[in-house]
Amino acid sequence: MEAKRTEIHELGEFGLISQLESSISLMNPSSIRGIGDDAAVIDIGNGFVQVVSTDMLVEGIHFDLTYIPLKYVGYKAVAVNVSDICAMNALAEQITVSVALSNRFSVEAVEELYDGIKMACSNYKVDIVGGDTTSSLSGLVISITVLGRAKKEDVVYRSGAKANDLIVVTGDLGAAYMGLQILEREKQIFQENPQIQPDLDAKDYILQRQMRPEARVDVIGFLKELNVQPTSMIDISDGLASELLHICKNSSVGCNIYDDKIPIDSQTSLTALEFEIDPSTCALNGGEDYELLFTISQNDFDKIKGNPHMTLIGHITNSDEGKYYIDKQGSAVELKAQGWVHFG
Amino acid sequence: MEAKRTEIHELGEFGLISQLESSISLMNPSSIRGIGDDAAVIDIGNGFVQVVSTDMLVEGIHFDLTYIPLKYVGYKAVAVNVSDICAMNALAEQITVSVALSNRFSVEAVEELYDGIKMACSNYKVDIVGGDTTSSLSGLVISITVLGRAKKEDVVYRSGAKANDLIVVTGDLGAAYMGLQILEREKQIFQENPQIQPDLDAKDYILQRQMRPEARVDVIGFLKELNVQPTSMIDISDGLASELLHICKNSSVGCNIYDDKIPIDSQTSLTALEFEIDPSTCALNGGEDYELLFTISQNDFDKIKGNPHMTLIGHITNSDEGKYYIDKQGSAVELKAQGWVHFG
User: Fold this and answer.
1) Burial of A337 by CB count in 10 Å (0-12 exposed, 13-18 middle, 19+ buried)?
2) Residue B235 to chain A, least CA–CA distance (Å)
3) Which domains does chain A have, with CATH numbers?
4) What is the ipTM score, two decimals?
């Protein structure tokens, strides 16, 4: 009898993860929250918790060294982890960095990677407290685990959104995705004709958003100063639609968001049009923006009104009212996640 | 001008790590200890610390799926991490598990890997609180970060050994290395002639030591019960010689250990002789035993005397007295680390 073989792409990344998760339970009383949010939450006593998250970046899947310098890969690896801690309304303090690399990499290359890692750590005030360096048979793999600390009552989960809460995003969306399109276009042109100089005119913002995203630690500071405790929060790594659906699922609510309110930078819009892509599609499904998506009580609206870092894009509804995106024509379209599909 | 290119094998794994470490400093007051011990130590207030360690296992480097089932790979990945927490005299409570895998692996294969991970977690009373699952272009990479908690004053570092302290190891040494030799021999025979049945007669103990090592969480319990606080401790992943040299370096001391005192199981000795290897060489340099090596004050000798889990193998000396291994003939040989060399 042959053993059953189910291909991973039949389940998809989220399907596989949820199947693995379903059999995991927590035993230790200090494990407050396990898998299923941006970070795990561990009780450390005295009203404080440790917030822990981990991310693995694989060459050829998450980054392409033909157009991203190693220094940027290192910076981004730290930023995306720190962003997960921000998404819990906490600040990162320590990371561990594990790296597997083949002998294709020189000592100088590893140093360049670590220069990026250290630059990000310095910017985010995070200490590198541990790690592992090993060889691999092919390519580069970076695995980072990040630790932050917060008061137990300050932690924001994906599960706290309530009907009538307002939906807010920070910064602007879709830029990282358009930056990636530019890099891939120029890579292809270069491969076909190495003589042609890359055309990166007026693309600096979207390239930077793709190559060197920042974790919004500043926003966590602003929220504290404004005395705003979000009711739910997540960071935007897989695209606005996917992340908002996570909040809706975890909070058992519905939502309405409005196309004309979604913040998109003009460079993103212009580049999207150049590629004949709807800019809103980039914002909804592009991913890798590492902005924060959160919900607040209506009572807190005045505190964030007019804040240049935060944009109101819609509101939470009851679960039975569905999850909708209201397009430019005013039609309600069911919100669906395209996101990133790593297993293809 | 060409950029300088230094090959990683010119520095070696330890050389590369120490070069990277040299430029890392700690900024946050909560970071008590960073890189350089079995685990990092983070102050969580109220007299407690969190102990954090991370390990990355790469297919083809750390394990060979032609002879190790995925369930064992999963189990071992957890055990080696939990062992690092034991080496700080603490107990693991949480882990995060990140896995990168190519489409060569089926959903059933991933489940088998996780079955091993979950079995180890259940044995060691550790919760899986987070992780990341992603694809890779080739092979399997597992990165685990483990968290434990301890009273600040209970934590044992590599740096506390003092002259005249006694050197103790748990269990027996060299078995995991001989188990690996058997597996590699049988793999080669199988590749040359698939008809021949593997000859694993009377090799069960050393195979189990290689394929399914255990973290000595029991020893941490015994030490507490016996009221013994080691002055320094490390786990044996790279071989007794290499680990003892770490303790000597970190504690600025010398040592004498005695060949005739090193605990070696008879199956290890017999198999070593079969391979025409000196059993002591396996114990000194074999690695992957995941036993604990620690030093205690002479005053504590009576507490561990006759304990079947612990063997006295020598004593700590002053730094200027050197680091020696006293062989069967009574000659003092300078202790050198062969260890595992991953970058070749």
Assistant:
1) middle
2) 15
3) 31-154 (3.30.1330.10), 166-334 (3.90.650.10)
4) 0.91
